[in-house]
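@channel anyone free to eyeball this complex?
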Amino acid sequence: MSEPRRRADAVRNREAVLDAAEALFARGGADGVSMNAVAEAAGVGKGTVFRAFTDRTGLLQALAERRSAPLRQAVESGPPPLGPGAPPRERVVAVLNALLGAKLDNQGLYLALEEAGGAASPYRSPSYGWWHTVLRDELARLTGTAGRADFLAHALLAAVRADLVAHLTVDERLPVAELRRRLTAYAHSVIPPEGG
Amino acid sequence: MSEPRRRADAVRNREAVLDAAEALFARGGADGVSMNAVAEAAGVGKGTVFRAFTDRTGLLQALAERRSAPLRQAVESGPPPLGPGAPPRERVVAVLNALLGAKLDNQGLYLALEEAGGAASPYRSPSYGWWHTVLRDELARLTGTAGRADFLAHALLAAVRADLVAHLTVDERLPVAELRRRLTAYAHSVIPPEGG
DNA sequence: CGACGATACGGACCATCGGTCCGCTTGGCA
DNA sequence: TGCCAAGCGGACCGATGGTCCGTATCGTCG
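replying in thread with the prediction:
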């Protein structure tokens, strides 16, 4: 069961690749961030990148994982309203807004991550499952049927998808503050009241 | 201003390509439908495909256009509840359900269409704009502020995105009837009441 | 400390894909 | 019937994700 021990240089390189890729996404946006570019920026061979992350999707997921770790931590065990304990309505809205924030920073990364189809569909990533579970469980405390909470969670997450967010802020030039306001209003109107 | 007249063989070939591509998507799903494959299946050179449709996105959009023309027609000038005239709530729900139906048939096509990023983002296609306008205008009759209706329309459309639909029906094995029920319930709960 | 096997490196290499180019063919009009 | 613009097709191109394998390095054990 124990992991077979990783060599020191492998660990070091993995970190370097992660850093380089993060920088590339932060700087240029989504385009131009090819695996070749990442390897070069990290000062590492291409094979090294693929050994560390299996494929492009693996790299993107690891990257997103690292970037959103604090947020997940806050949701898992931080103080309300993000952490457990707040009334369901408030917590769901807080989580959605936090997620929106993550997509706004890291636009390039999340665009790349959600673009993939087939086996790499965003819906198949463990990360999506995690967020969906959090929302669903919280919503289940408000709605009668489980199926309802389940679909509602999907719908709410769909409203903060990276490409929609990018479209609204970049193409339509909707100010971020306004976007936040609309998302919040929408979420409030969607989430059923306390009385089920 | 007049279109420069198209040669007969060009028209014929265009149709052949459309048919071949449609068949490919209907049969195999999204994968394997490369431009090369389409050209070959149509019994036509690759250059011909690109002259007729400019690029891959053009082909996909033309394809989707053709497949959904009757639906658009029905929404534009058909009988209620899909056509104009029905109460906003019912019409919006009807349109969403119709859209869901279109994504369920033609899964491969819509998956391919929504996968694209960058300049070919689904949100930049005229088709999306059209559906969004329809929903927004209808919703605007119910909500106070325009911005609210606008975002709500986006959110509702996001709930029937091809990859989400595929995830629910294929991965989660959610029966189509159940999906329809949940979508309808969700839409009803989201759309503000008449007095809104 | 030396040596040996497992692990990792790197970049040449490969297959595939969307898209372009251009010499040849064909349709349509006078 | 002859001319020429419109169209054809498939070889070709550049980029990309992913693989392969000879070589270098790590870490351990005697």
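from a first look: Residues 5, 7-10, 34-36, 46-47, 50, 55-56 of chain B lie near DNA strand C (CB under 10 Å from a C1').
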